[in-house]
Amino acid sequence: MEPALTLAQEFILLASDGATHKWRKPMRSYLHTYAAGAVLIELLAKEAIRIGEKGKLEVVRAGYRDDEAGQWMIRKLSGAKPATLKKWVQRLYSRSRERSELFEAVARPLIRNGDLREERHRVMLVFSAKRYVPSDASKDRIVRRIRAELLESGPVTRQTALLTMMLETGKLLKGYFSDYERNALEKRLRELQDEQDGQWKSIRQIRKAIEEMDFTWIAVAAAT
Questions:
Q1: What pLDDT does 3 receive?
Q2: What's CA 1's distance to the chain center, in Å?
């Protein structure tokens, strides 16, 4: 039996797929930030954390042990001044060391299992850099599940629904689904948003935070 993967692990397996996405593949900083958002969403979904007073994140299960990345995030949340989901996403976006630590905690089990391969490559033929390459089998398994649950009649698991919306937010569905299929997926996601409450609200908050960071990035680039 294949080991169960977390929301963040499934997201980075598809988001790291340079062979499919080519120039659409997210920049490292955005990939790490989306992965951090997926960790937070899963902790909310598992009720390990909650959105408390004034929208600030609160730890509910300090002894959370389900996965390494979730434990890392719980430790950070427990030892820091309370902040909103948006502030946490922005913090991780701006702190490359913390962002990388969390991403590696997500990726390590995938590398051990053979779902993800780590490679060194040259940037501009000079600088050595690290990239991750997902296995074809792991990608295909996830895409088949999305298609089976959201494009065919039957029950939809929470993780599949959340993953698909994360991929839609990151504009990463195009590499795996036709225009017709993507329209059907987006229609089904809208229906699920009406059926579910807290989990979808969390994703919308992260989407808004990342969109705002995109605007900030554009403004900085234009000013330099």
A1: 62
A2: 24
